[in-house]
Amino acid sequence: MVDVLSPLKPVWKPGTHGNTTSGVGVVLTETQPGSIVQVAAWPGQEKKLIAAIKTVTRLALPDGAGGGVASDSKAAFGIAPGKFLIVDQNEGFAAILSGIMTADIGTVTDLSHGRTALRISGPKAEWVLSKFFAIDFSLPAFPVGSGISSVHHDVFAQIQRSGADQFDLYIFRSFARSFWMALGHASEEVGYEVS
Amino acid sequence: MSPRRIDTGGRRVDRDRGIRFTFDGKPYSGHPGDTLASALLANGVTLFGRSFKYHRPRGVLTAGVDEPNALVTVLKGNIREPNIPATQLEIYDGLTVVSQNRFPSLSFDIGAANQLGGKLLGAGFYYKTFMGPVVGPLKGTRFWMFCEYFIRRAAGLGRAGYDKDSARYERTNAFCDVLVVGSGPAGLMAAKAAAQSGKRVILAELEPRFGGSANWSSETIDGMPAADWAQATIAELRERKNVRLLPRTTVWGYYDDNMLAALERVSDHKRDAAKGEPRHRYWSIRPGAVVLATGAFERPLVFPGNDRPGVMLAGAAERYAAEFGVLPGRKIAVFANNDGAYGTALALKKSGAEIVAIVDVRRQVSEAAHAAALSTGGEFLAGHAVVATEGGTKLSGVKVQIFDAATGALSGDPRSIDADCLIVSGGWSPVIHLASQAGVSPQWDDDRQAFLPPKPTQNWIGAGAFNGSFSTAAALSEGDAAGRQAAGETDGPAEELPNVDAPALQSNPAPVFEIRTSGKAFVDYQHDVTAEDVRLAHREGFVSVEHLKRYTTLGMATDQGKTSNVPGLAIMAEALGKPIPDVGTTRFRAPFAPVSIGSLAAERYGDLKPERLTPMHDWHIEHGATMYSAGLWYRPMIYGHSGETIEQAYVREAKAVREKAGIVDVSTLGKIAVQGPDAAEFLDRVYTNMFSTLAVGKARYGLMLREDGFVMDDGTTWRLGENDFLMTTTTANAGKVMQHLEYFLDVVWPDLKVHLTSVTDQWAGAAIGGPKAREILAACVTGTAVDNEAMPFMGIVHGEIAGVAVMICRLSFSGEMAFEVYCGAGHGTHVWKALLEAGKPFGLVPYGLEALGTLRIEKGHVTGAEIDGRTTGRDLHLDWMLSKKKPFIGSAMMDREGMTAEDRLQLVGIVSLDNRPLNGGGHIVEQANPEDPANSLGHITAACYSPALGKFIGLALVKGGKSRHGKRAFTSDPLRNRFGPVEIVSHHFFDPEGKRMHG
Amino acid sequence: MLITCPYCGPRDVSEYTYQGDGNRARPDAGSTDNQAWNSYVYDRLNIAGEHHEIWQHSGGCRAHLAVSRNTLTHKVSAVAFARDAGHRKSDRHRKSGGAA
Question: Recorded GO terms, molecular function (chain C) (predicted)?
Fold first, then answer.
């Protein structure tokens, strides 16, 4: 198996950075899941699609826009009407999903190489993300598991809250390095750790 | 030495610690908490700057954001920050400040001679003087251009620097239930009430210290000094998790849907910002409801000499004494049209000043005011006015005369009173700027002689002095009510309101704005607009307040007329013989106070500008590529060898492709997954040619038009499965095409079952072309044959290279036998390296965009330079792609008269006949005449040196197109001084039959 | 300005792209009625008041939305997915060209 090359390689600097006088505000990392797959239902087929996702992933997606669930090895969340992002630590998940997706339900699109998964966690995660997106990141407005699609200038992002103070960002691969550097820049004032 | 530090007051400053700073090179000391204004006053400095037009000496008028006079320039290294009000500038160790608009020095200024020419420099001076003579060398605007240099040096405010601002700026977004703007008694109560309901609250205060007027008031709240009550309240708020306190934060804009913009000055008050700490932070705040508790600005009175250093607003004087422990003078005279200033006089006396006189325009004052006047011990001059100030750059006395407030008439002989400070109060104007931005025009109130806020059109609630409720008791109760209402609470107050002990002094003023007598009386201090200028504007016919403003520039300086708008309007109203509300007021616009451009540009600037990098980016850099920026993408231009020019490099690379093989990174091409049972039908509708007939495992070149029939984009689309297509677009148009397709699916054909996904970043793409390309693939691809049978032209195969799954399509942009190899982006560099390794024995070279451009020009392939939004399929000789069997986007409009006309610009090739390079953008003409470059036949879209032909060639869009093949013409490029003969030829320069790519 | 996307909720206008007058009705694909095509491609209503517009939530779920917006106050009174709003009939649309 040939390794997937991280787009962050030359700018990946493990350790603590910025102003850490009052501790580490956020931890930044690249989660490098094996599979990032978009599944999309035709109008009216959403329920069947959610059932199919459950069959394969055992993740029970809640109803409603942006609804999602996250476990240690898998995650799924709504990104657009009838569209979901499915993330799995193992490679080849697109093929598994394609196997159960019939043409009358919807489509499967493999984005494993096309999106870079960045994780920001820690007490200042909401604060740092607020510098990028005009989104209310507070817990009541953005509960654990749920997802949103937003944009920071030209950088499109799909974001899932995977913990009380943890967010996973799926960024177009070509923008990942730029965005990573901007993320580090914005985290400097609260101190950050790359791991 | 008039002003000085006193032993009383000064809660804001830390007397135990000293701070050293310089002003105009001279060292001074102050304390933490001091502003530049308070620190300089404490050092006895009263002269802060020179005025805009007349270079008059100016001191400090106010103690806050409304300051029109005391503007200074802060130097940080080589960075100059001009026009900072000294009243807002917090001092720190090493602060370096210089005064503005003076030459050679502040105390001796040559430009002050401008005062002598005062009559000449009145309103409209520039318009009138610089129209210029009708004839002669300086006719029209030339006279202005001649004088401009001198005027620009003499007039104006601070000078900006030339060095790049190295400070860091940020922006952020905030959401809350209640935003409270202003933290005086009203704002504090509102924040407290809203916070107690559990709602998310943001409290923004433009000063470093919360508490507003409570910080300098001599009143008591709940039995304690108002300032103590304020600090206790803020301490309580600070403990709450649902409250965010934003000091040094000016809310400057109120926009649609309750969106507010604020500027937080995060580290201006520090010598060095902490690591990662921005200088300014721009807050975009979206609250559910807003409480506007922005207070009121005191107004000056307009009288001759009202700008002399030593003249100060009454409230400001009280504030300097109470907050900073600085007395602005020893012998203080008071001039007022309301009771408010009497309280100030008492407070200043208590602080140790001598009140020499209280001059009031009113003959009758309230009993409370009368009693206060007597207890100050100063001479009480009711029914009098100040008619002049005495002294040079420092006040030494005032002249007073008997005044009739009803008629404005002066009588009796003027007499002098010695004073080193004159405090003035002309009434108070509620700070309604944000409300006015968010809504309609304000309402005039006769009692207060002021504009009150309009009815809300957005979700805000006003409280306190903002509403014209100037007493502290009213501020507390209105603040509490506003806070509860904003939080959605409907019950009455949870607890009793604090008690206030305050003198019974009313600040409602007499309707007197100006003392009219000889001498310059300033309305707008910062722009040097006098009362006479306003009347001159009226005499010259500028009767609308909007015109008045523009003609005199009243209220258009950096302070936006905070102290001058109402007096200016009142003087205009008097000139017009109309009541003030009939003259109207100009609406307030954002920003409320100056905003740094850096904070608005923030993360979009410099290194933080987003870039798009291909999967092989680092390899390109390591291998000596010179990079181009193409939109946000970075792409190799050439892989130059040492000593090579750009031209030598691309010629070498292009030659290698034609002779052996070359490889180019094409990962930037837009790629869209078009999936679903109706995908083929959808493509038939959006492309001019058929895609439903395309076999699985084959690709086809497609052309897309806009609805108006012009060409939009081109590219190949690959059929990977029955319902699964991979569309490629040009790099530049990827986003536009995606949006175009999404629009049609959502809005026009929602019944089609098609999903579109951007997969540009999913795939790394390498195009390998040249006579040896197939052999190179054969050497490294496993799992599939790559011969003609397995991979005919436009055929797609799946295989592996170095253990990685790849998808290969045989298609050619270079005109050679060529293949595009796609693999997962994360494997891009791995596959790229494997291809180069396999190609080594065959002479494979990497090539950049310059060589790519050369190869495509030789082949006559079009790109964005020809698909410029004005060309049709026929113009580009792509008529063969316009299907007649089906309608498609653009088919109905593409045959319109103008789009099929004979004289349209059409694609041709051109060859330089003088063996010199051609320039893109150069024109094609029939007769070369450098003196009269006219009658363009068209223009060159792309040009290069063609190694295959050994000539300088280009593509051009030329009238008549094909009919000119073989004819001679000229290129005319006056901008680059390039004129010369060319031959017009077919755009297919090289291998027109395509033998090489079909091989 | 905020637009409430039926999927994503209220979002800042900077996440959206204006995609044109929502009152236009596209002629049948095979139509040869030049007048109708001309009107569809070039004519735009320029309403001072309640207007029907198409916006794309390009910085979000990417859906096209049919938005009713008052051009004088920027108040958005209704938002629906454009695909659900269906084709707007041309009754609000001027049949002929020319400036108004």
Answer: sarcosine oxidase activity
